[in-house]
Amino acid sequence: MYTVLAIIAAVLFLIAWLINAAEVSTNDVFTSTNVMLVGLALLALHVAGIGSGWAARGRRR
Predict the structure, then answer these.
(1) Fewer CB within 10 Å, N or C, the chain?
(2) Highest taxon of the source (predicted)?
């Protein structure tokens, strides 16, 4: 559960690569560049620690 954003980003990178490699014609919103940028945003959130599941309070005793 800790790497959900990274896995989603990897899937989006794969979709962007497939769109680019197959030269699929898509509309202006769903281009390979836009999909890649969404993947980069999710990867940046993952690296920043967003969605990592760590609580701010931690496990103090």
Answers:
(1) C
(2) Bacteria
